[in-house]
Specification:
Helices cover about 55% and strands about 15% of the residues. With about 270 residues, it is an alpha/beta fold. Helix 2 links the parallel strand 2 and strand 3. The chain is elongated and about 70 Å long. The two termini are about 35 Å apart. It binds NADP nicotinamide-adenine-dinucleotide phosphate. The site of NADP nicotinamide-adenine-dinucleotide phosphate has 25 residues, from helix 1 and helix 4.
Amino acid sequence: MDSKTRIGFIGGGKMGGAIAGGLLSRGVAEASRIWVSDTAKDRLQELKDLYGIHTTTENQTVVKNADILILAVKPQVMGPVLKGLSGAVGRSKLVISIAAGIPIAFLEGHLGKGVRVIRTMPNTPALIGEGATALARGSHASEQDLETARQIFNAVGQTVIVPEEQLDAVTGLSGSGPAYVFIILEALSDGGVRMGLPRDTALVLAAQTLLGAAKLFLTGDKHPGQLKDMVTSPGGTTIAGIQALEEGGLRAAMIRAVEAATLRSQELGKAK
Ligand SMILES: NC(=O)c1ccc[n+]([C@@H]2O[C@H](COP(=O)([O-])OP(=O)(O)OC[C@H]3O[C@@H](n4cnc5c(N)ncnc54)[C@H](OP(=O)(O)O)[C@@H]3O)[C@@H](O)[C@H]2O)c1
């Protein structure tokens, strides 16, 4: 992808808008080369004012003006949206879907023969440029297409490439994961309050501790076990806390949470 590549969004809601904003702020694309279509005119005006990008209520106009199409509508309207695009999207365009639970076969089936599709699963921290996105390649997309899609999602966080069948597990881990972490955040601060800290103080300490610990891992080369050992002195405070966590079954609860969400994602997929 170069700076001349034209990117079109079908759906300019929370996710579409966040990705467009990320592309602009990271200098991956120019505003004059980004098009967005949406049914909500006030949202289009907001995006135009915010980013200076082209907007339209016609999805076909976006298709005409884009080399890469990002499908960012809710899964329940994907069927009608694809019907409206069928025949208009040829092999010259790369189509990237962010819709949860919509299989590549469904996208390829609706878009027509040979269309290059990438399916992705981002998560809500993409809204502030700290997303975790997994990408899976469709049957007609190339390695280069995957790289192009990766470049786009690197503008709103970190990316990994997986085979499509692993996207349910991705949903169970990073898709649903922010909710698990919010519970940990709340619980950690409850602990602080239990021990006499004001709620505001406890929440800031808990949130910064989660952020700092994640950054220590992501920016270094140490396994989480090594990082844990570095703060766990013999007979000290941390090992006493860790024993309480293990007795409470936190590790098993996390594994079960990802398992349960993955199974639910598989179940919802089968219902489609
Ligand atoms: N939010 C997340 O954390 C997250 C995470 C992973 C994946 N996703 C996926 O991202 C996609 C978008 O989610 P979102 O949170 O950004 O939803 P959203 O804020 O509701 O954005 C979707 C936008 O598409 C518009 N739209 C509806 N029908 C349309 C049509 N026929 N043509 C063009 N635009 C249309 C909607 O307008 P109206 O408001 O007028 O309906 C809305 O502005 C979903 O498929 C979701 O599964 C989201």
